[in-house]
Amino acid sequence: MLDAFGAGARAALRWEMHGTILREMPGLVTPDHVGSTFVIVGVTTARFNEDRLIDRCGCYWDLGSFSAQFR
Question: Where are the beta strands (DSSP E) in 1-71?
């Protein structure tokens, strides 16, 4: 996790994921990139109910930055 913020019943987390391409992803990653490493930066947002349980959650990441690593 890179950063976190919370206010009332809402929270947001900014995160970074590091990995290795294990197989081709048609239209996104070619076989030439199998074995290459990558970094994805993303954000997760959450809303909590009155019992402090997650009511809604969404994860978002930057496809453009991911794709640019394999051009």
Answer: 3-7, 10-20, 37-48, 54-61
Candidates 42, 45, 63, 62; CA nearest to 54 is 45
- Which of 30, 33, 27, 35 lies closest to 63, judged by CA? 27
Q: Are 49 and 10 in contact (CB under 8 A)?
A: no
Tokens of 42: 């993303």
Paired tokens of 46: 């959450």
pLDDT digit string, tens, across residues 1-10: 789 999 999 9
